[in-house]
Amino acid sequence: MPADDIPVSQEPADALAAVVALRRLADQLEDAAVEQAMRDGWSWPQVAEALGVTRQAVHKKHIRRLIDAGVTLRRRQ
What does the DSSP 8-state code read for residue 3? Predict the structure, then answer.
């Protein structure tokens, strides 16, 4: 979608607040989806590929939260 087609508030504070809210929502959606994938037995490489990032990046971002949530994580074979 070209930037010209994106509706932006005329008030910069409102537009920037919307960006912050969308980033928070995206982070929450990612957290929930990664947790569900890991609970369903997905591997780190599978999750990383689905997110378009490296295995190391997804591991670093989510490992502590998943452990704290009691998710059983797969070990490398």
Answer: G
DSSP states of 37-72: HHHTT--HHHHHHHHTS-HHHHHHHHHHHHHHTTPP
Determine the Cα–Cα distance for residues 29 and 36; give it in Å rounded to an integer: 11
Q: What is the mean pLDDT of the chain?
A: 91
Assign residue 9 a region: left if phi > 0, alpha if psi is -120 to 50, beta otherwise? beta
> pTM of this prediction?
0.82
Mean pLDDT of 9-29: 93
Cα separations in angstroms, 26 against 4, 20, 33, 70, 75? 22, 10, 10, 22, 28
